[in-house]
Amino acid sequence: MTNTSSPKTPLMESETNLYDEAPVPMFDRLQLLQGFHPRKALDRLAEDVKRAIRVGNYWYWLEVPELEEGIEIADLICPLRYDVVVRRDFYSFYEANRDLYHSDFDGFVELVRQSSYYTWFAASEAVRCRPYLLDDHDRLWTQFVNQIHKAVALYESMERCGFDEQAPLILRTAENLLPPTADRLAPPTGKSIADRYFMADGCHRLAWLMSRGYTVLPAAFFRVQCFREFSPFDSTSLLARSLPMTPAEYFSFLSSRYCRPLVFEDKDGFLEHIAEYSPDAMDEVLSILRVDGFDAGAS
Question: Alpha-carbon distance 282 to 278, whole Å?
Fold first, then answer.
């Protein structure tokens, strides 16, 4: 329920055509302290205070009417989150090699080490979320093996129980969306993206849904978190230069967002389609190709 008793700031007022706020009433937050996740309740109270006085990078949940029918998965992962495609491919590999995982785990891990999943972990996940691993190969390897166990356990749980709507995926937006970044401490990657909603938490679960044929993420499967400021993660910029990604793979990936239902496997055909049918997206697309290293010459 929208709280209409609180005045909106000018910035929030300007956003009302995009989404409606849904703050949780203070009384309901206090009730959370009576035996249900008290730490989380205190954290949310702190966020409420920061938001009220506009201090720090506060956040709050949003109800987004424009997404009440769900959101195209391609719009969530393309062009910034090729890592979700890599996770989907890992689940396809695991499904085809389940017996090997249980009978010869070391052999299974060695095959995964040669795959895009290890490249994702070492060149994307570690850069963005675990930089302390970058100079410690032994620790990186140990955590990668643990990551395989965790990913497989999640897969098996979802195979048994399906998607748990009580633990929705988290999408993010912001009052002030910043340019995409790869390394949190580095400058923006240089892509100019017009999107408002970005994948944040639950990428392996999204990958499982993709492996089961989902192309639209149902509204019941996600919540939207709005920060004061947020820079979306550009994993593709890291993986495009770390993986042996072919032009056919890369432009098929971009086509899923910018050309669907058509699929182009070469740059010339892809750009010709954009020029004819989506000319307003041309500058955005060119910035993506330049950052990912697919802008030179004909493909």
Answer: 7
Cα 144 to Cα 45, 62, 82, 121: the distances in Å are: 36, 34, 19, 7
Task: Give burial (CB, 10 Å; 0-12/13-18/19+) of 200.
Answer: buried
What are the domain boundaries of the chain?
10-63, 246-292
pLDDT tens, position by position, for the chain (299 residues)? 434 343 333 333 333 333 334 444 444 444 444 555 677 777 767 667 776 667 788 999 999 999 999 999 999 999 999 999 999 999 999 999 999 999 999 999 999 999 999 999 999 998 888 988 888 899 999 999 999 999 999 999 999 999 999 999 999 999 999 999 998 888 999 999 999 999 999 999 999 999 999 999 999 999 999 999 999 999 999 999 999 999 999 999 999 999 999 999 999 999 999 999 999 999 999 999 999 999 976 54
User: Is this prediction's pTM over 0.85?
Assistant: no
